[in-house]
Amino acid sequence: MTEKRKLTLKDIARELGISISTASRALKEHPDIAEDTIRLVKAYAEKHHYVPNTLAVNFRKNRTFNLGLIVPELVHHFFSTVISGAIDTAKKNGYNILVSQSNDILADEVMACRTMLASSVDGLLISISNETVEGVHLKEFLEEGKPVVQFDKITDHLNTPKVIVDDFNGSYMAVKHLIGQGFRKIAHIRGRTEVKNASERAMGYKQALLDHGLELREEWVKGCKLIHEQEGYDFCKELMESKNPPDAIFCITDLVAMGVLKYLKEKSIQIPEQVGVMGFSNWKLAEIVNPGLSSVDQHGYEMGQKAVLKLIDLIKNHDVENDEIIELKTNLIIRGSTTSTKNSDKVTLQ
Amino acid sequence: MTEKRKLTLKDIARELGISISTASRALKEHPDIAEDTIRLVKAYAEKHHYVPNTLAVNFRKNRTFNLGLIVPELVHHFFSTVISGAIDTAKKNGYNILVSQSNDILADEVMACRTMLASSVDGLLISISNETVEGVHLKEFLEEGKPVVQFDKITDHLNTPKVIVDDFNGSYMAVKHLIGQGFRKIAHIRGRTEVKNASERAMGYKQALLDHGLELREEWVKGCKLIHEQEGYDFCKELMESKNPPDAIFCITDLVAMGVLKYLKEKSIQIPEQVGVMGFSNWKLAEIVNPGLSSVDQHGYEMGQKAVLKLIDLIKNHDVENDEIIELKTNLIIRGSTTSTKNSDKVTLQ
DNA sequence: CTGTTAGCGCGTTCAT
DNA sequence: ATGAACGCGCTAACAG
Question: Which residues form a coiled coil (chains A, B) (predicted)?
Answer without folding.
Answer: none
